[in-house]
Amino acid sequence: MNHVSVDLETLGTVADAVILSIGAVRFDPDTNQIDDDGFYRCISIDSNLDYKRRIQEDTLVWWMKQSPAAQKVFHEPNKVSLETALCEFSDWLGSTDSFMWGNGADFDQPMLALAYTQTTVPTPWKFWNNRCLRTLKNLPAAKNVTVPRLGTHHNALQDAIYQAQLIQAIFAAMNGKKVKT
Q1: Residue 67 contacts residue 25 (beta carbons within 8 Å)
Q2: From CA 69, how far away is CA 151, in angstroms rounded?
Q3: Mind listing the pLDDT tens digit for each residue in 121-152?
Q4: Alpha-carbon distance 100 to 24, whole Å?
Q5: Closest by CA position to 22, among listed 92, 118, 96, 117
Q6: How far, in Å, CA of 173 to CA of 129, rounded?
């Protein structure tokens, strides 16, 4: 499978925001197949600050209003450095020519790409393989497509799985197939 749904949990909405966690799954947009293993890393805030990544106050306030399950990202015992997380994500992706799906053309992939540049770790995907779920969701064939939301909202891995399921459902609807959920 060469499609990857990626989700970041961050402390801001700008490209140089602190990245709290990275979640990703491989999936096939034409079937219901999603890689069970996935990728998930929680990242130390201090290691982000070493690269001058920023915390936005409004996002921090927003986090304070989220569920205790979502806030667990702040208390994960096995956090890694930003550079380690990016190297491990690159290793997980491998050398495949992956299509990278994020929920917004200006969010997940651009934030990750800047982090790769800041840490001097090579970006493991081609910029022309970026795909945008937000754009896909706004196509006419996708307007009435819904997928049940399971798990913890704002957990990067669980959000990445949900995004992959939504992409699969939209592809099915666009191809005139029954949407499986």
Answers
A1: no
A2: 9
A3: 999 999 999 999 999 999 999 999 999 999 99
A4: 10
A5: 92
A6: 22
Helix, strand, coil % (nearest 5) of the chain? 40, 20, 40
Q: What is the DSSP letter of 141?
A: G
Average pLDDT of the segment spanning 142-170: 95
Distance of alpha carbon 151 from alpha carbon 118, whole angstroms: 32
Number of Cβ within a 10 Å radius of residue 36: 8
Contacts of residue 38, Cβ cutoff 8 Å, sequence gap at least 6: 23, 24, 25, 26, 157, 160, 161
Which burial class, exposed, middle or buried, applies to 27 when counting CB atoms under 10 A from its CB (0-12, 13-18, 19+)? buried
pTM of the model: 0.95
CATH architecture of 3-174: 2-Layer Sandwich (3.30)
- The DSSP string of 62-91 is HHHTS-HHHHGGGT-SS-B-HHHHHHHHHH
